Amino acid sequence: MNARSELSIATVLIGFSMLNYFYLIPTQVVAEGSSPVYPALINTMLLCFALAYLAEGVRCWRKEKLAQGEGGSCSTGGGKLMVRPLAMLVVTGAWVLSMEYLGFIISTFVFLMIASRIFGSKSWSKTLILSVAMPLIISFVFRGLNALLPEGPAEELINLILG
Amino acid sequence: MGEIFGNLWDGAVFALSLWNILAILIGYAIGIIAGAIPGVMAVTAMVLILPYTFTLEPLFAIAMLMGIYKGGAYAGSITATLFNIPGTPEAAATALDSYPMFKQGMQKRSLEIALWASVFGGTVSNFLLVFTAPPLAEVALRLGPSEIAALILFSLTAVITLLGDSRMDIWKGFISITLGLMLATVGLDNMSASRRYVFGIEDLDNGVPFVLTIIALLALSEVFIQAEKVGGFTLGEAASAVSKIIPYTWKQRWLDLKICLKDLIRSSLIGSLLGALPGIGATTAAFVCYGEARRSAKKNARFGDGDPRGIAAPEAGNNAVAASSLIPLVTLGIPGSVAAAVMYGAFMIQGMIPGPMLMMEHPEIIYGLFVLLIVTDFLGAFVIALPFISVVQKIFKNLNYSLFFPGVVVCCVVGVYAEEFNVFNLRIFLALGFVGYIMRKMGMSIPPFILAFILGPILERNTRTALLLSNGSPMIFLQSPITLGLLILAAVALGWSLWRKTRGGKSVLEVPEEFKH
Q1: How far is the C-alpha of B11 from the C-alpha of A5, rounded, in Å?
Q2: Which of B117, B73, B159, B419 is nearest to B265 (CA)?
Q3: How far is CA B238 from CA B80, B242, B495, in A?
Q4: CB A110 within 8 A of CB A95
């Protein structure tokens, strides 16, 4: 991460701290009848550390400017967000949201098929075996333990077959 | 001393059942497999197993988790030796000498030295835990709310100041801690039972579940990180390049023991001491021990070219961390590492709160755990580790990461769902997993966040109780010498750390960048 990103993050944190002071603590803590002392104390800590982080970011930014072309940097962190993790997030989110409607078996089957592709799986047969076997095995283990996973058409069909 | 031995005997009678021993062996096997897979550490396996321990007997569950931790601590050295790919970050120090030894055809020698050093380090650390925990617990019982609050503040500060490599890291670490403390305030106020930060959502009244948070921040965020590295794991050519395998004779074993004994003892003690401090971790201990072994060796040492001391020292050191990192947990109720935090969760799931009271009220459980720890090292090494080396080799060669990581996500989601059978929790889980990923991308450390999240409610309860006792006067934090001392220590640690970074001085606890979490 470059110094500019560090400065942006520090600014967001300071903004969040302000939001907490002037909106969240009054509406979500005080209005509910709770003491604001401890949340305000932690928020003050966050503000102080975010300010220190901002100051360090400014120092870093100056250093980077001075060392331009020499590759000097005092920033830490891994850099840009990547496409695959974001795709995984979207697919996992869709799976979690659809589980209530499609049931565990079908939604997990679809999730595993897509997620394996995101992770670069090239073998359709292996992906298919995993996508079918894993939800079925987990579903039967839960059934054996008398614990229910979200139900959908596939579970209803299994219930019908097993009585 | 006599009382400790008496309690150990009672603990042994209570804990040494066939089921508990089976739990250790199962756990050790899982730990070895998990620890040998790059990207999946023993702690990840512990986290995945954690929600399923609800229905298990307390000691069975805890013994299994301990087995995973110990198995994982050794397992990293297997792939480090065979493929020069450390399964765990701490095994990176071992690879410096174990891989060159393997290349010379001494695979058996290298793996056995690592195994024996692990057992040695683990055992020394176990005994340190057994003999230091009871007196420390007695002291802990005399601490009041202000002292406990100061102790927690000191622990959290120590985690950051000892591990931060730059001033930027230190501030990011503190922000991580503060965010963890903030997340812990969500839910009902633990003194007045009124709601905080719940946004009208009843599912948040009990706060953000602990197990869910750990799984999301450690396991799910790791899957997102691994998604960036698709196709990044290669075994290299070396694994198949060694054609001649030199047998490891008993004479050679005896010679190696003589050469390594000093380093084994020194590294076990260093690892035990570093492990007892909050936040140091096995990776740092392994590199410190390797550095010490190298520094104290004579000029004709072959470090970096297959010296047995280069394997024994880091392995003894990193395994010594495992048991001693439990000292703050069982004596003060403060987890000092992520693995200890998972153990804390396991105790909580079983309806027990770790700390001095548990040690006084249920000594059979704590001493039973100590006995199981001692047994784990020996049983794990003899029954599981040696036969498992070839199994690990096969798994590692044939593992399909493109199917493995989606499977891990399914296990995480099912584990989180099974905790409360609540779909809403899955949404929080997903959100926290992504927050964890973003934090890691921003260079913010996850372990301090988790430790702060766990310690937050204890810190709040004790801070507010202390203020109630003093009618709201913060002077209570300056009146007790222990509280004052701990607060000064925290401030000095922070000041010293910032000063050291300004001067550009290097810490003795420096770990190479590529092996950091």
Answers
A1: 54
A2: B117
A3: 12, 7, 47
A4: yes
Are B39 and B72 in contact by the 8 Å Cβ rule? The answer is no
Three-class DSSP category at B374: helix
pLDDT at A67: 75
What is the H or E stretch that residue B187 is in? strand B187-188
Per-residue model confidence as pLDDT tens digits over B247-266: 788 888 899 888 899 999 99
Of B380, B326, B400, nearest in space to B132 by CA: B326
- Length of chain A (residues): 163
Give the residue among B386, B303, B378 at the shortest CA–CA distance from B107.
B386
**Amino acid present at A127:** T
Residue B393 has pLDDT above 70, yes or no: no
DSSP structure class, residue A23: I
Q: Which of B242, B239, B257, B251 is nearest to B113 (CA)?
A: B257
What ipTM, to 2 d.p.? 0.89
Instruction: Render pLDDT for B281-315 as a digit per residue (tens, 0 to 9).
Output: 677 788 888 888 888 887 667 788 888 998 999 99
The amino acid that residue B113 corresponds to is I
pTM: 0.78
> For residue B170, what are the contacts with CB-CB under 8 A and spacing of at least 6?
B160, B161, B164, B494, B497, B498, B501
Per-residue pLDDT of A78-119, as tens digits, reads: 555 578 889 999 999 999 999 989 999 999 999 999 999 998
Question: Residue B253 corresponds to which tokens in the numbers above?
Answer: 């074993």
Confidence (pLDDT) at B161: 63
Answer whether residue A157 shows pLDDT above 60.
Answer: yes
Average the pLDDT over A122-139 and give the result. Answer: 91
Q: Is the pLDDT of residue B159 over 90?
A: no
Is A102:A152 a contact under the CB 8 Å cutoff? yes
Query: Considering only CA atoms, which of B71, B271, B184, B61 is closest in space to residue B452?
Result: B184
State the DSSP string of A78-137: --SPPHHHHHHHHHHHHHHHHHHHH-HHHHHHHHHHHHHHHTT---HHHHHHHHHHHHHH
Residue predicted with more confidence, B208 or B355: B208
Contact assignment for A119 to B405 by CB distance below 8 Å: yes
pLDDT at B242: 53
User: Is the minimum CB–CB distance between B245 and chain A shorter than 8 Å?
Assistant: no
Which 432-491 residues of chain B touch chain A by CB within 8 A? 433-434, 437-438, 440-444, 460, 463-464, 467
> What part of A 28-87 touches B (C-beta under 8 Å)?
28-29, 32-35, 37-39, 42-43, 45-46, 49-50, 52-53, 56-57, 60, 74-82, 84-85, 87
- Residue B188 bridge partners (DSSP): B195
Q: In sequence order, what are the residues at sequence separation of 6 or more whose Cβ sits closer than 8 angstroms to the Cβ of residue B210?
A: B345, B348, B453, B454
Instruction: Report residue B77 CA to chain centroid gap.
Output: 16
Residue B354 is encoded by which pair of tokens? 């770790």
Q: Does residue B198 contact residue B186 with C-beta atoms inside 8 Å?
A: yes
| Adjacent-strand bridge partners of B196 | B187
A112 with B410: CB under 8 angstroms?
A: yes
